[in-house]
Amino acid sequence: MERIMGGGVLQMILASAGLLLLYRILVRLRSGAALQDAVVVITGASSGLGKECARVFHAAGARLVLCGRDARRLQQVVQELTASSTGSQRQTYTPSTVIFDLSDTNTVERAAEEILKCYGQVDVLINNAGISYRGNILDTHLSVQRDVMETNYFGPIALTQALLPSMVQRRSGHIVVISSVQGKIAIPYRSAYAASKHATQAYFDCLRAEIERYGIPVTVISPGYIRTSLSVNAVTGDGSKYGVLDKTTAMGRDPGDVAQAVLKAVRQRSKDVILAGPLPHLAIYLRTLWPALFFKLMSSRARKEQKPKDE
User: Which stretches of 249-288 are assigned E, i.e. beta strand?
Assistant: First the structure.
């Protein structure tokens, strides 16, 4: 009797394991095919994370619309992607480009029209373009705060709202925004950047709730430090370039790995993704559960730095 029961249990375990493996394979195959021929729009696609996102979505068979301010650099990305397609077993497409300045919201409506003309629809919008900031609030011009908000907040929401009606009409689409861990917690000498990312988080959280009934997912991805030139190109309190590669940035995540995580989040239709180590996760929970301690730690950090500098 024990032998029979033992054999029966073993068979059930093996059968369950087999079904689980089959399910995972089917999910992987289904998700892998989901982006084939999908129209994916990426802002800030000429460098950094945007360029890496272009690589992984192109390799997945998406029809890309690459957006940025520099036509020459975007064309270089197109040439690189086209060359990388040689010998690929998956059907790939030569990316289209749309040139515009996201910080100039007056041009976004026209840019959205150009984007829609490329393929007639948008299946995935990846709001990636952004600018960072390093500065002491006492020494920062209000115009700098406004400029950062224009690029990091008003630009993405203007483009999103311009393309959203076409998605709602089709009841199909996916909106993605690359935010930051600093959209959830704020650290000293990052006021303009953290404020813009907090606003971004709030807007897209609201958007997610409002358009869920149309079957359009909204994904907010909050990375920690990434090895890009973001800190080098950051603006300071007077509007000049920071021009320094922070140690934290130099030691950050590989942008290719982050791009793969973005691809995975799109395939899984994730709602909110934090791509950071244990300390940022702890800080986020601390800010919510024990704010007094969090504020004390941030004050201590501000005193140690005294001025915006390499962390």
Answer: 272-275
Closest CA to 188 of 278, 296, 299: 299
Q: Residue 161 is which amino acid?
A: Q
Angle between helices 48-59 and 71-84 (to 10 degrees): 30
Active site residues: 193
CA 227 to chain centre: 14
Spatial separation of the C-alpha atoms in residues 253 and 228, rounded to whole Å = 9
Reported as a single tens digit per residue, the pLDDT across 5-52 is 455 656 665 666 566 666 554 544 444 447 999 999 999 999 999 999
Taking CA atoms, 98 is separated from 41, 125, 274, in Å, by 10, 13, 29
Give the strand pairing for 96-99 and 63-68: parallel
Given a contact cutoff of 8 angstroms between Cβ atoms, the answer to whether 159 and 106 are in contact is no
User: SS3 of 162, please?
Assistant: helix
Q: Which residues contact 194 (CB under 8 A, 6 or more apart)?
A: 180, 182, 183, 185, 186, 187
Structural tokens at position 111: 């840019």
State pLDDT tens for residues 65-121.
Answer: 999 999 999 999 999 999 987 767 789 999 999 999 999 989 999 999 999 999 999
Structure tokens given for 131: 């600018």
Residue keyed to tokens 């409002």 = 210
Burial track 192-227 (b if 16+ CB lie within 10 A, e otherwise): bbbbbbbbbbebbeebbeebeeeebbbbbbbbbbbb
pTM score: 0.86
Residue tagged 């115009």 (tokens): 143
Residue-level pLDDT at 15: 61
Query: What's the length of the chain?
Result: 311
